[in-house]
Amino acid sequence: MSSTRKKLTFGLTSILAASLVLGACGNNKASDNSAASGNGDKGETVELSWYTIGTPQKDVDKVMEEVSKYTKEKIGATVKMTMIDWGDYNQKMQVLTASGASMDIMFTASWAFDYVQNARKGAFAPIDELLDQYGKGIKETLDPAFLEGSKVDGKNYGVPANKELPAQEVWRFNKNILDENNLSFEGVRTLESLEPLLKTVKENNPDVIPFQVDKNFMPYVPYDYLIEKFPLAVKLDDTEYKVVNVFETPEMKQALATMHKYYKAGYVPTEAATLESSSDVQATGLWFADKATTQPFADNVWSTSYGYPIISTPQSDALVYNLSVMGSMQAISANSKHKEKAMEFLNLLNTDPVLRNMVDSGIEGTHYKKVDDTHMENLPESKNYDMPTFSLGNVMLTYLNPGDPDNKWEEFKSYNDAGQPAILLGFNFDPSKVSTEIAAVQNAKEAFWAPLMTGTVDPESYVPKAIEKLQAAGLDKIMAEAQSQLDAWKAANNK
Amino acid sequence: MKALGRHLKDINRNKAMLLMVLPASLWFICFSYLPMLGTIISFKEYRFSGSFLSSIINSKWVGFDNFKFLFRTDDAYIITRNTILYNAVFIFIGLVLAVAMAIVLSEIANKRLAKWYQTGMFMPYFLSWVIVGYFVYSFLSYDRGMINKIAVTLGADPTQWYSEPKYWPLIIVLVFLWKSLGYNSVIYLAAIMGIDKSLYEAAMIDGANKWQQIRNITLPMLTPLMTILTLLAIGRIFYADFGLFYQVTRDSGTLYSVTNVIDTYVYRGLKTTGEIGMSTAAGLYQSFVGFVLVITSNYIVRRFNKDNALF
Question: Taking CA atoms, what residue in B is nearest to A444?
């Protein structure tokens, strides 16, 4: 008797609790809706909610108030910006998007809240028509390669920021050590051509790491990868567009053999394969050479940030890859109720220096002061509004910092104009049909990727093992799928 | 009508108790029972369309496709073996050491010193695996690690710890015990403190020595708690501690044969495609195996002693 009663009581309590919870949820939704419709009723002024990456700044709301005054006049919209910290951005945006939260504009890139992946999953609204109608300014300012290269299955889902377009790999040298040993990088381009320099440094400076390499390192080979850090690639000059396993190419085999030689000679850090990043070594300055991706005036930027002089020399041509086009973009949410206004705002952001600089540097007189027409200087208050410039649209509209050369943006433009498209520019592999195989191959690959790339293990014995493992995990099936997608793309684009 | 009246009376009589249960019930409904509906996603190819619910409804059914990646290669055997064996060892050794440590702590006459030891052992539990990973690195680093420095001073060759799989089963078990032992022994210590002191007095009068007291009073009194905690741990035997196997091993590829567990496998496999359906499938699979194991082990415990079982 008492046990049945207990059960009943428990049942009733659960029902009560459940109804409370559901009631609470329901209420929330109702109030959300009324707030949204309230905004719409006010007439033309709409509030755009903008999610972007970066450490949240104290003065964001204050600056956005000023921004809103300006945009209200120009396009009849106000802006509410929400910043999400670097490390949280991926996850929080996943949750916000999955829960259908109301957002209008959001930051996306190949490396944060993955642009291609989320475009395919339906997170972003296609913007081709919006661009034609409200985004004319964007189309005029951007190099066409930006919009061409960021197409996903033939459609654009994001506005790329106008910045450096091609990617070029360089060898960087710690100039102090270079000078100390009377060395010159004349004639250095390939991985092999570094050897005499590394040898000298190893002999003369026992404390210095001759060739700084960490687990993210990959030797340059003239191939365009289908997926970042995934062994499928197409040779840059292959008119047949044949997808290959990079470990089977002579270039990669040679590069890995050279890396292993360097590793055995002690040029590379012993624990390179598990070294998360090189920042510790860069802080001490006890390194001689490494590999990096450049942009105009990069040497100056590196030298300032490390506190000692850096010089660099190219190891590859400047090419426009998919990844370089998708470094920083703004997309419009598929759930947005104000897609047209959002595009008008993005158009203004990418063409209007007043708005762009306000978003970037804050309020004139509070956060920064202008020195002349093109230069500005940060005021002490700027510590409350320190934004990552590259993530907020067209960087070529921003004012120059005191040390910047006057021709900075002209140099960027000529650098961009000189860049040639890489072979896969505009082609984005759709992995959804082979996602099971990709998961298995990723696991097989991770086990030997860093040890091979850093030269830690002998490629003679490891590469055949690696290829075997990759094939067992289903690499051939992915390769066939990629090839058929690539052939279709090639036919459709008359390549 | 009459029945309803009786219920209302019942609720009224127990309202204080019900009110106490309410917060926990709400918590469970919100964070455990409602999310259970989401397991549907593991049978779908999840795509965004409007709100969360409409996304679920509009996504395509794919049957068991999302589960396939877990069983695709011979890695399936390695990750299952690693996950279950490590956890079995953690549960067993963890139990023995935690109980032993609790008994030792309870027998220390100087209570201030006992508190001191207890706190010292408890501290590592609060450290994140990232920090523990650096602690371990300071011992095992090739050129700066303490162990290699000592080895070199003694004339031995330095070891590349992060590329030698044979040492890692031991290292992982040691690090795990170091971090979790303090916490677990405190639970048992609390239970020992709750044992009626008159039992020990009676035993002493009967001439029992310390060892006999422990064997015949402390251990039998702890058995129900040991059983319940072990049963709960078995329910999570298919969940590996991601931080332990990813951070502490510095994600070193050459160690995967002994450090790849189901959680790290899922992470590595899905970071490129980000398929929500597949990660949900992995979670469902883990819960399902845990569920079956808990039910079976609970059934076995019941066969021996009904009072010690969970339900």
Answer: B75
Angstroms from A350 CA to nearest CA on chain B: 28
A49: enclosing H helix or E strand: strand A46-53
**Interface ipTM > 0.85:** no
CA distances from A195 to A293, A351, A354 (A): 21, 47, 50
Chain A interface test: which of B275, B276, B285, B311 (most A C-beta within 10 Å): B275
Q: Strand A158-160 and strand A329-332: pairing? A: antiparallel
Burial of B89-110, coded b for 16+ CB within 10 Å and e otherwise, reads: ebbeebbeebbebbbebbeeee
Its pTM stands at 0.83
A21 and B272 within 8 Å at the Cβ level: the answer is no
Please list the residues that pair with A289 across neighbouring strands: A173, A211
What is the model's pLDDT at position A324? 87
In which band, very low, low, confident or very high, does the pLDDT at B1 lie, cut at 50, 70 and 90?
A: low
The whole-angstrom separation of Cα A9 and Cα B18 is 9
Interchain CB distance below 8 Å, B268 and A446 = yes
Burial class (CB in 10 A: 0-12, 13-18, 19+), B37: exposed
CA distances in angstroms from B283 to B86, B234, B239, listed in the order given? 19, 16, 9
Which residue, among A68, A138, A67, has the nearest Cα to A361 in the 3D structure?
A67
Q: What is the pLDDT of residue A209?
A: 95
Mean of pLDDT values over A293-318: 93
Distance from the A228 Cα atom to the nearest Cα atom in chain B, whole angstroms: 9
Give the Cα separation of A225 and A479 in Å (integer).
12
* Tokens read off for B59: 């996504």
Contacts of residue B4, defined as CB under 8 A and 6 or more positions apart, other chains included, come to none
Token reading at B91: 């549960």
Nearest CA-CA distance, residue A122 and chain B, Å:
5
**CA separation for the pair A211, A205 (Å, rounded):** 12
Using one digit for the tens of pLDDT, what is the confidence trace for A326-348?
Answer: 999 999 999 999 999 999 999 99
Using CA atoms, how far apart are residues A59 and A123, in angstroms rounded to an integer?
29
Q: Distance from B19 to chain A by nearest Cα, in Å?
A: 9
Cβ pair B72:A473 closer than 8 A: yes
**pLDDT at residue number A142:** 92
Give one word for A202, left, alpha or beta, with left for phi > 0 and alpha for psi -120 to 50: alpha
B163 and A227: CB-CB below 8 Å?
no
Cβ-contact A412, A164 below 8 angstroms: yes
For range A271-297, the mean pLDDT: 92
Determine, for residues A439 and B69 on separate chains, whether the beta-carbon distance falls below 8 Å: yes
In our burial notation (b when 16+ CB lie closer than 10 A, e otherwise), range A330-365 reads bbbbbbbebbbbbbbbbbbbbbbeebbbbbbbbbbe
Structure tokens at A418: 């000189």
Q: Tell me the one-letter amino acid at B197.
A: K
Closest chain B CA to residue A2: B10
pLDDT tier for residue A13 given thresholds of 50, 70 and 90:
very low
Note whether A11 and B19 are within 8 A (CB).
no
Question: What letter does residue A364 receive in the DSSP assignment?
Answer: B
Q: Cβ separation of A448 and B253 shorter than 8 Å?
A: yes
